[in-house]
């Protein structure tokens, strides 16, 4: 099958087109013909080798972290899907590889595609939608009337998180450029901070939850925005011990991860708030919940541009250089 892969860690020049063996599905696997996949910042970090200590992939590695497509074969123990089903998924972290014509996905990580979406639209959702769900529903347990700050509201995670927070009944603030102010308001933002002309930490106060996708200085400035007992959940900040335990890494690496987040956790404690790092996980049951919201019109995908499969490298470069105006960059195989 045709794929885009890396044989060594590096920059964009390490990505190349290749012929790879077709997947061999296990008893509980579903073989999916991929019709579309999307580009995520996670793809660049994996390509660069940023996660090689905690996600020890075997090279060569086919890149890509979410997909939409059609079931072409099911394993002997599969009970949830049948040949011909239109599905979408974020495969488990150790079974990625959606920049390809085929992939084998465990049935528990898969869900039927929203009926109201095209394949390209559906492919844009799994990773960012699951990230939003696991941050706002599972971890923050956002309640109606709470105040939620979502950074980078026009980004891949932001465009979905805004809609989910609105669905949950929260009062929502976000940071975005003036050019995207109307878009993020349509998606659910009650307050829009122009990050180019305003300092959000001087405008906002008394928030229950911050979803941080930027890390660094933005993460540090987010702590005072929270009220006592508030939570900042970051997908870009330093990993913590809880994340290390989830991965099951050795004690030395666990201590190292804990040390990386020590400064942030200490600052959070002084503010009377909590910090946690989120690395989203595959979850077909959560995708099914999200499918219902999509088909009910509560959440819609935001797609910036669709590239054909043979231009996957160009699609990655386009996304990595920040050329997308809002939402996701998608690769269409069919």
UniProtKB/TrEMBL annotation:
SUPFAM superfamilies: GroES-like (SSF50129), NAD(P)-binding Rossmann-fold domains (SSF51735)
Organism from which the protein derives: Streptomyces ochraceiscleroticus
Keyword tags: Oxidoreductase
Matches recorded under InterPro entries: ADH-like_N, ER, GroES-like_sf, NAD(P)-bd_dom_sf, Quin_OxRdtase/zeta-crystal_CS, YIM1/Zinc_Alcohol_DH_Fams
Name listed for the protein in its UniProt record: NADP-dependent oxidoreductase
EC number: 1.-.-.-
Superkingdom field: Bacteria
Domain Enoyl reductase (ER), first and last residues per copy: 10-331
UniProt GO MF annotations: oxidoreductase activity
Entry-linked PROSITE patterns: QOR_ZETA_CRYSTAL (PS01162)
Pfam family, one: ADH_N
